[in-house]
Design a protein that fits this description.
Distance between the termini: 43 Å
Shape: elongated
Number of strands: 6
Mean pLDDT: 84
Strand order of the largest sheet: 2-3-5-6
Oligomer: single chain
Helix content: 55-70%
Order of helices and strands: HEHHEEHHEHHEEHHH
Largest sheet: 4 strands, antiparallel
Strand content: 5-15%
Length: 440
Amino acid sequence: MFGGYFYTANTKMMRKILLLLLFLPIYLTGYSGNSEKYLLTRQQREERFLENNLSLIAEKLNVEVAEAAVIQAKLWENPSVTIGDVNLWSTRSQRDGENIPGFIGDFGKNTEFSIELSQLIYPAGKRRKLIAVENAAKEIVESEFEEWLLVIKFELRNAIQDALYLQEVLELYREQLLSVEILVNSFTGMVADGNFSANELLRLKTVKLSLEKDIYETEKEWNEVQRILKSLLVFDPECDIIIRDEKPTIITNLPDVKALVELAYDNRPDLGTHNRQGDYYERLLKYERYLRAPDVTFGVNYDRWGGVWRNYVGFGVGVDIPIFNRNQGNIKAAKIGMRKNDLLFEQKKNEVANEIAESYKNYLSAVNFYNNVAKDDFSKHMYGMLERYKSNLLSRNIGMIEYIDFWEAYRESEEINLESRMNLEKSYNELCLTVGVELK
């Protein structure tokens, strides 16, 4: 009996190796469509996502836009030039009989005009405060990008776990369909010879039909996950992405909830966004207060034959008188923004702490369930028993109902085994997402 068990277990392993070999013209060095397959490791997936995802590249441009706003804040206002008082014609009586000489040669002869050059000057500190505000806004955009990156990486990793699960389930179903087809072919001949019940054969064909239906539905789910992965990793639509099975992630020295919460306070990008928004409103308030001081405009003007002096050069200064508008509304809005952000920040910290507590418990439950499923190598034993049930059915030592009952139990146990692995990885991804860092 034990010799038969080891034979069947090794047979299953050989089948997996053969199936894997079918997928191995598979490297990430390039692709050309035509249903090409790619076997991706964890590192290859992450690298390709960071290098090729178009949404990621587009989001990075928001940071560059914010950097451009800082550059713009550092620029001086352009000077203004005004040319006026130009007479289109003149008469001798208007000039009291005089002739006005040309400005350059005959150009401008008998013509009066004025030129004014002005420059807006900000009060001391206002430009620095504006640059500080734009720098704070840039930091917020950077933090929002980090938050977006963390979330989309979480979606990618969960999609990968879905793909790995469906990949293994399809292999299970196809392997069992092949086994059932062998039984159907064997018993079809026996029914023709009168050595097997047609009703039992019909029951077996129903099992085959049920498997085909499961394969069909699972393939639809597989196609959907493939669409998500190929969109995130930017692959050709006609290719297939095969996920390399890797050792499940079990954290050996997992900190307690309190330590994880403190870690999240230092690393969660969304908390960083709230913190930087508080800094933004502080800088904005200082800037708005500085706006109470009026800007100053310096000017110089030249007037040719427009007054007592024939070539008059004058200097001037202009300033607003802050009687009605002292920027009261914007100052109040900045103060309200600070208060609002403080309240939302405290609320967010409370939400983060509760999210971590939930993810922590879910992860420990997933680890415990996975270990219980894996500790006795239950799957290997069930497969060996299924092969013996199959042999006993062919030898007519058991009936069809007994075989199908065990077959259903075997399929359920295999699905539970695969689900435990998938749920463990997803709960690990969720824990890392809630803390904001990779936990090892």
